[in-house]
Amino acid sequence: MSNKAIKFAYLSQEELIEAGTFNLKMAIEAVKTGLLKFKDNRILFPDKIVQIFNEETQERINCLPATLLDERICGVKWVSCFPPNPIRFGTQNLCAVIVLSSIVNGYPVCVMDGTLCSNMRVASMGAIAADKLAKKDSASIGFIGAGEQAKMHLLGMKSVRPNLKICRVAAKYADEEKSFIETMEKIIPDMDFVACNTILEDAIRDSDIIVTATSTQAPLLKAEWIKKGAFYSHIGGWEDEYKVVQLADKIVCDDWETVKHRTQTLSRCYKEGIIKDEDIYGNIVDILDGTIPGRENDDEFIYFNAVGLAYADISIAYAMYKHAIEQGFGRELALQETMIFDKDLTGKVVL
Ligand SMILES: NC(=O)c1ccc[n+]([C@@H]2O[C@H](COP(=O)([O-])OP(=O)(O)OC[C@H]3O[C@@H](n4cnc5c(N)ncnc54)[C@H](O)[C@@H]3O)[C@@H](O)[C@H]2O)c1
Q1: Whose alpha carbon is nearest atom 5 of ligand 1?
Q2: SS3 helix, strand, coil % of the chain, rounded to 5?
Q3: pTM score
Q4: Where are the domains of the chain?
């Protein structure tokens, strides 16, 4: 073997979990660091590339790069979003692969599952926001939507609000609520779960933390259901009536400039002139670094919307990679053993 070999670690989702990287606290710390470093210009974050294959269903594959300058790591998330998958094939909507490369020599260091990382990123961002914006004594959480994001969000919220005791869940079909509860009660045994039998209002009324994570585009969440002092994490597209936005005492985003050009409720309100730039309280990083305060009293209704910042994914992926390697995981794969013309190519070149 020559020193011209290029090798990288391969980490499947199962290996990442076995290595102990399904760790919301670790992911939350990685996202916080990423947010602060991006604000400090220590992260390169070019535009994502989007390829849409079906305008109606929004089946797409996106390519999202980011570079962590201090860690000398450039990463890319290659992520598919195929909303019809659950109904068409009975399989998950999202699937992601992450490649991490060294910016010392440009070579890949890791190819890894990115679905776990990606879903933990969504939950971590919501959890960071909840930590600053949800009431300290929040005891109940209500979900509209019982899919992959909802499950992960519950873990994120529980990790920053360990006193959460009641989880109510409403989805399009009652059997989804049942399966959400069967899965989650094994992971969070100290929580009482309530299936709302598709009655969305029942999941929301009286909940200190509200989460919508649906695959539909409709104003499902109603302003009149919202409890005083609630914190709302909006995950999907158009999921709440405009009155919910208008009810908010504070609207906080992961990055408003990114959010406002998308298609979820806040972006729709912006495009229709219902809210203006000055109605946005701030970005979560400005609360994290103390530039502006988070929640200021127990009565505020606070609305949080994150649409995803790929440097947060790459920050988590790098933390997962390092931890997995320290634990002895990561199958080493060779991309090449030697350079092309160092090999014996006799009879192997086709002209
Ligand atoms: N903000 C982000 O950064 C981010 C990241 C990833 C995914 N997402 C979005 O999160 C959403 C959820 O993704 P997922 O992977 O959990 O999807 P999923 O298919 O696993 O779950 C979707 C849920 O929506 C529910 N739903 C659909 N229509 C409904 C209705 N009319 N009433 C009540 N519930 C309804 C379904 O019952 C299901 O429980 C998607 O819109 C996805 O694009 C956002």
Answers
A1: 122
A2: 35, 25, 40
A3: 0.95
A4: 6-117+310-342, 135-305
